[in-house]
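Most newcomers find our protein records easier to grasp once they have seen one. A learned vocabulary of local backbone shapes supplies the integers on the structure line. Here is such a record, shown just as it appears in the course material:
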Amino acid sequence: MAKRPPDLQSGPGFFDDIDEPDRSASGRQLIIEADGGSRGNPGPAAYGALVRDAQTSKVLATEGLPIGRATNNVAEYRGLIAGLEMARELDPTAVLEVRMDSKLVIEQMAGRWKVKHADMKPLALEAARLRPAEVTWTWVPRELNKAADTLVNRALDGAPVRRHYVVDRRG
């Protein structure tokens, strides 16, 4: 079984046994900004995610959708998964930086914290399946995650943003 190269901010952890195809990077760099939230915990929940070009900061894709009744942590993971799906659609070999204000998700995905909760394990595995070979996990303060947070709140307020690509997916 091939071992995943360590992320820039990770060590051994939950994802060590996941087989991954060999990928050659296209040289493109993308930034995922993701968030999730619930009103009550659990309560009505939603996620928001966007993908930016790392060089221009231009938003390339967005999505913000309600997910029904869930915990905040489930919503955070769903935002991450949406961001990873959009980045893969744009360029499956791009180098990624994932920025989230969820310390739990960032630390778990980087392999520094274990995924213990049964509801989180399938979501963490799905995120691991979607992530490319090169990814940096960056925790950001809430005030630096406003674009993704806005998508969450729009979805919770009844104005969801369906997945939208601003540019051609082939790059």
Remarks:
- The first strand starts at residue 29 and ends at 38.
